[in-house]
TrEMBL record:
It comes from Jhaorihella thermophila. SUPFAM superfamilies: PLP-dependent transferases. It comes from the Bacteria. The lineage of its organism: Bacteria, Pseudomonadati, Pseudomonadota, Alphaproteobacteria, Rhodobacterales. Pfam families: Aminotran_3. PROSITE patterns: AA_TRANSFER_CLASS_3. One of its GO terms (molecular function) is pyridoxal phosphate binding. This is Taurine-pyruvate aminotransferase. PANTHER family: AMINOTRANSFERASE, AMINOTRANSFERASE CLASS-III. InterPro entries: Aminotrans_3, Aminotrans_3_PPA_site, PyrdxlP-dep_Trfase, PyrdxlP-dep_Trfase_major, PyrdxlP-dep_Trfase_small. Keywords: Aminotransferase, Pyridoxal phosphate, Pyruvate, Transferase. Belongs to the class-III pyridoxal-phosphate-dependent aminotransferase family. Gene3D superfamilies: Aspartate Aminotransferase, domain 1, Type I PLP-dependent aspartate aminotransferase-like (Major domain). Its cofactor is pyridoxal 5'-phosphate.
Amino acid sequence: MDGTFTQNDIRHIVEADKAHVWHHLTQHKPFETSDPRIILEGKGMRVWDQNGKEYIDAVSGGVWTVNVGYGRENIAKAVYDQLMKLCYFAQSAGSIPGSLFAEKLISKMPGMSRVYITNSGSEANEKAFKMVRQIAHKKYGGKKYKILYRDRDYHGSTLAAMSAGGQDERNAQYGPFAPGFVRVPHCMEYRKEELGLGHLSGRDFGIAAANLIEEVILREGPETVGALCLEPVTAGGGVITPPDGYWERVQEICRKYDILLHIDEVVCGIGRTGTHWFGYQHYGIKPDFVTMAKGVASGYAAIACCVTTEEVFEMFKDNAEDPLDHFRDISTFGGCAAGPAAALENMRIIEDENLLENCTAMGERLMGNLRALMDKHAVIGDVRGLGLFCGAELVADRETKEPVSESQVAQVVAECGAQGVIIGASNRSVPGRNNTLCFSPALIATADDIDAITQAVDAALTRVFG
């Protein structure tokens, strides 16, 4: 189409969608009597649906992706120019955008060295898991193969990624899962009673929460544990920022037991947390693997990465005579040249427009506004966040911290949508704990955008809870 839609065009699109499209994370039964939402266009922080309704997008494409906003002609042109020159060649060979992007990315990640390009966050995490397993065979006779993951963290929707998934409702009905993945407790101070650490707070709590990981390692046997995979800030599990002292102690534990540290930056990476390019950089972490996806190209092309240290990379070429010694893996669409071309231009925009600094400033404004709403609405039990990645946990009672129902959270989201603001929420993830409103507007957000988002939440909370 030429971009101009008649009512007949739109009706045809809607009917084609209802007849043939299988939407992500969606129960389709309601579409037998109602229409799905079709997003036709986006510009900056706004999108428009098939009815012409305009929304402020406070979740960057629904899943924390469109970091630099919609309608970036320069990224589209970079992708077009690259596709005309070379659309694809298997990543067993190099490409101009692939090489330049890897160089640019590594310049933002001191201590890291190598970039394995793939096409989704789930797949990027799978690559790291495979590397850990291969290292176990190469160095430890196959014994140091277990991968620890954290309660409430999420690492993807493939079966191995789900085996490392700390969200039981997302995992339900998809087992049995791959063996060798072991859960460790979460580090959420607001829910510290669940960990038996209700008597602690601040740094003391953070260290104690990390020590719970050590307890799991000792129970499993340190000689069997190869890696620990964590989000720097837990995303869909409730926007959980780590307590003071936590990451410092986690690193000590990993070094003590020779455990590789895998940081999942699929949500937090490429500026989402403000100040730094990656979430882990706020905490002085020195990882062995960093995986990323969503914001790498802001959704303008599919690209994800598994980044490693040179030490990890060297393990896969230390015996060139052995035909099984290298990393025998391929990602078909990791060879699509559009991804790194888009990612390079995406990074240039973030630098030239000072979006890390804007993310920090607007994140502080968003957190301030949410705290003001917490003073006004007793239903907000806790506010958490870093940069433009924030959450507000809703509770029926602040004393008991009893969560509100998931249906009530959905009502708040719907009320915001009726006002023309799209927000997110934890949903169908952690049993009994799907009660956090999630906010992740694009890094280009203005003060007016932030205020409009929280004004809509204020009105929605009033309508739903009084």
